[in-house]
Structures are given as structure tokens and as C-alpha cells.
Amino acid sequence: MKRAVVLLSGGLDSTTVLGQVIAEGWEAYALSFDYGQRHQEELERAMDIADALGAREHRVVRVDLAAFGGSALTDDLDVPKNRRTFDEIPITYVPARNTVFLALALAWAETLGARDVFAGMNALDYSGYPDCRPEFLEAFERLANVATKAGVESEEPAFRFHAPLMRLGKADIVRKAVELGVDLSRTLSCYDPAPAGAPCGACDACRLRARGFEEAGIPDPALVPGEPAGAKRS
Questions:
Q1: What is the 3-state secondary structure (H, E, C) of 163-227?
Q2: Whole-model pTM?
């Protein structure tokens, strides 16, 4: 069985990717980060999801990006609510976050003898972060193959970075998760949840998620207790 490292935030996209990787027969090593984010509830969700989906191992690594601040997710700044457009990089962008995350995923992959890293990046229905684009992922893959022992010793690229949802809209991601049988009631997609974990409903992540479920014609099971994940709206 081939091994893969899967970045897992506890949200809709990364959970769908983990479900897909496991369904395809990979031995999945889930990796989450406690980076000083205000939405710490997502780590609890990630641990629950990794166990429920059957990840071979799940690690939570502490990386204090809050030490630098500069983002509403790690600093004392208001999370934007009800933005009308997504044509500019918002204050919820965390500087270098995905670069740091992929670098640590690469380190674990090389240690495990894994050569594939999966992430839930999406470049269609997203907030506009520069490190969620295919150009970024392609550039990081080139870097990984010149910056590692495994890469230098291999005649072919040793590492492959996958973002299977990169060009899917949120509605298609919802449908894919339902097809895979992923329990989306376990997921949280909110930048500013209440202390008990309830989503705010107004941040970018909440609104993009809501639009995805609406366009898919499927009620969000995280908002409708007991609702089957694949149930259609009447």
C-alpha cells in the first residue's frame, strides 16, 4: 500500500481529499497544524475526522505563526464578514502559511518514505489566497525535488504534490464528498466560530460553503442535526 501525507484542516475541502485518498487505497498520514489560529475548534474536528475516516496516523504540529501576526486568523483583527466580492486578497490571508505547511508535510513524507502529498487547495470558489493557486503548488513541487535527499538521489522527480479539488467548484466538492460517503457533519468551515464551535455564517469560508451546498441541492448536515449528508432539498 502506497503512503501519502494529507494536509487536514477539519474543513470541507481537506476532509473530502482525505476521504478520496483513503477510498483510492492509499495509506493516509493526516497532518494538521496548531498555528495560533483563532478557530482552534478545527483541530478538534480534524482529530475526529482522521479517526472516523481511518487515517493510518494523525499528527498535530505546533507552528506559531501568531508570533508574526499580520492576519485576522492569527492576530487581533476583525474577520471580514459579508464581503461582496472575492477579487482581492483579504486580511484572513496568513503570510506564507501554505509554504510552511507543505514544507513540514514534505519533511514527514521523506521520513515516512512517502512520495505523495495531498492538499485541499482550490482555485475556483476560494477567498483569493495566492498560495492556493496551481502555480504555487507546481513551484513548490519543483522546490521539493531539489531540496531533499530523496529528490537529489532520484533520476526522476521523487515527490508529487496533489490538489485534486483545485479546479472544482464548491458544489462539485460537496457532491464528491457525498459520493465518497464522507460525513460532512463533522467538518467546520468558519474563520470566526463561536466558543462552542457554531459557525458565524458570514465570513468568506461560511459563505462559500453555504453557496456550495445550495448549488448542489444538498442541505448542510453540519447545520441540520440528523440530516443525511446526501439528502436532497424538497
A1: CCCCCCCHHHHHHHHHHHCCCHHHCCCCCCCCCCCCCCCCCHHHHHHHHHHHHHCCCCCCCCCCC
A2: 0.93
